[in-house]
Amino acid sequence: MIVDNNEDLQTGFWLSEWAFPIFTAFLAAGVFAGTHMYYVYHIGAFNEIAIVAMLEAGLKGGSFGAAAAFGASFLFARILEGPLVGILDIGGSIMTGVGIGVPAIFLSMGITGPLESFPLALLTGAVIGLVIGCIIIIIRKYTVASNESTFGADVMMGAGNASGRYLGPMIVIAAAMASIPVGIGATIGAAAFYAWKKPIAGGAIIGAMILGALFPIMTK
Question: For residues 33 and 15, what is the distance between their CA atoms, to the nearest angstrom?
Fold first, then answer.
C-alpha cells in the first residue's frame, strides 16, 4: 500500500498511541532479560558499570536498598517526565529503572524466579514495559493532550543524557513551527542556557513552556 499523504502517516502504526506501550514492552523485555543474563552468568546487563555495581553489591552483600531506591526513583521520575516533556529517557526509565531498580526490589523481597528463568524474564519485562507505556499514555491524555491538541505532546524515546544535547536546535525549530511566541521563548531559553554552559535543550523547553503559557497556541 502506497502512502501518499501526511494524514495516513499520522494515523499509521508507528505514530499511533496504542503502539507506544508495545514498544516499551519490547524494550523492557530485552533489558530485563539482560539483567537475567547478568544474574545467572555475570554478563549482559544493559547499564553503566557504576549502576550495575549497585546490583552486584546487593548480590554479594544481600542488601539491595541502594540499587532498588536508585533505580525505582529514576523509573518513577521518567514515567512522569515522559508525557510532560515529550521525551522518554530510555537510560533512566528502562535501563536503570527496569534493568536495575525492579530486579533489586524483587530480590529484596526474595523473588528470584523472574531472574533465574530467561522466558520468565522476558515475560516479566514485557509486562512491566506494557504497564509503563500505558501509564505514560494515560498521563499524556489527561494533561498536555487534554485539549485535543497533539502538537508537542507526542513522546519520543531514546533521548538520554548523551544524545539529549543534540536535541536543542530541533526543539527550537519545532517550537518556532508551533507559533512565533513559543519559538522566541525557546530561542531565548536556549541562548540563556548556552551562556550558562548548560544543555540548551532544557533552556529551549523551559522558554517555550513559559511563552507558550503566556501566548497559548490556538486550536480548532
Answer: 27
